[in-house]
Amino acid sequence: MNAKKKTVWFEVEEEETINDCLQRLSAAGYSVAGRKEEPVFQEVDGEYVPIRQIIKFKGILIE
To answer: Which of 8, 10, 11, 54 is the most buried (most CB within 10 A)?
Structure first.
C-alpha cells in the first residue's frame, strides 16, 4: 500500500517558476490550500541583508 500524506509543502526551487511548482503540485495529485514566503538573509559587513525569498505552497491530497 502506497499511502500519500494528506498535506505536503511544495517549495519553489531556485531554477523553477511559480507556475512550474504549481504544475508539479497538481501532477502529484494535490491542490493548493495555502502559500507562505520566508526571506533568506546573508550577513554582509555585520548586517543581515535579504538575498532571496523562499515560496512554499501547501498541497492538499485530492481524493
So the answer is: 10
Amino acid at 37: E
Question: Cα separation of 34 and 14, whole Å?
Answer: 20
Contact predicate 53/41, CB 8 Å: no
Alpha-carbon distances, residue 25 vs 14, 54, 55, 58, 61 (angstroms): 16, 16, 13, 9, 10
Confidence category of residue 4, pLDDT binned at 50, 70, 90? confident
Q: Do you know the residue count of the chain?
A: 63
d(CA 6, CA 16): 24
List the chain domain ranges: 7-61
How many other CB atoms sit within 10 Å of the CB of residue 37? 9
